[in-house]
Amino acid sequence: MFKKTLLVLLTFIVSISFAGLSLAAENGNKRKGKYTYRKVYESCQKRGAVETAKPKLNPDAHSQAEWTKIFKDKKFADFGCAEEWSKLSEEQLRDIYSYLHDHASDSPTPAKCN
């Protein structure tokens, strides 16, 4: 009886751990997102499409709900550098979203500048 209970408990713990890992993977990496976001504009500047490598929008330019809507609808026109944005993978977009969302104007830690 004890072995059976222990086995069920361990199975439950392992399944919860895997569920947590999968949810964390879906959220994106905000450190990678900040790096990728900056690299998009550096690439855009090298191409001559913008004058400066500084991103047009800071994370605090929108609220968390606004960032969610922008990324859900994939409306990146305000960002400029359409060619670079179209080349980003879904993972890179998730990372950038995590960075922008987690530092939005209404977040606990808004980013005031890049």
State the order of secondary-structure elements, H for helix, E for strand: HHHHH
Task: Domain count, please report it.
Answer: 1
Q: Give the overall shape.
A: elongated
Task: Report on the biggest sheet.
Answer: none
The unreliable regions are: 18-25
N- and C-termini, Cα separation: 59 Å
- If helices are DSSP runs of H or I spanning 4 or more residues, what is the number of helices? 5
Structural class: mainly alpha
- Average pLDDT: 83
Radius of gyration: 19 Å
Provide the helix percentage.
55-70%
For the secondary structure, the number of strands is 0
Strand content is: under 5%
List the helices and strands and how they pair.
Blueprint (H helix, E strand, L loop, with lengths): L1 H26 L2 H18 L16 H10 L8 H5 L3 H13 L12
Helix pairs in contact: 2-5, 3-5
Structure in words:
There is one protein chain. The chain has 114 residues and is mostly helical. It has one domain. The chain contains five helices and no strands. The protein has helices at 2-27, 30-47, 64-73, 82-86, 90-102. Helix 2 packs across helix 5 and helix 3 runs antiparallel to helix 5. The longest helix has 26 residues, at 2-27. The chain is elongated, with a radius of gyration of 19 Å.
